[in-house]
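Hello again, I could really use a second opinion on something today. For a while now I've been wondering how a particular protein folds. Please have a think about how the structure follows from the sequence. Here's the protein in full, and shout if anything looks odd to you:

***
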Amino acid sequence: MKHENIENKVIDTKEKLNAIPLALDTYQEKVLLETIKRLKNPFINISVQDVAKDLKIGENMAYSIFKRDDFPSVNIGRCWKVCLISYLLWKTQKRV
């Protein structure tokens, strides 16, 4: 039995995303991809206060969003956090 050489491509998160071939269907996905490319670190965690400021809502409303089942948040001790890239994906798909 012959073993085929299968090349695994490891993509560094710091590598430019232009090298990754993606099939994007909608204009919204293309805009989102361009936004993610411009971020220094799309995998940082942001807080309730950051989300409240971004959505221009109060902290109490932001806490209620963090408790929603469809919101990709994590409770670390007494702090609620969300990964920036997950938040951006959620934000483009949902309405508050």
About this structure: The beta strands are 45-47, 73-76, 79-83. The longest strand covers residues 79-83. The chain has a mean pLDDT of 78. The longest helix spans residues 27-38.
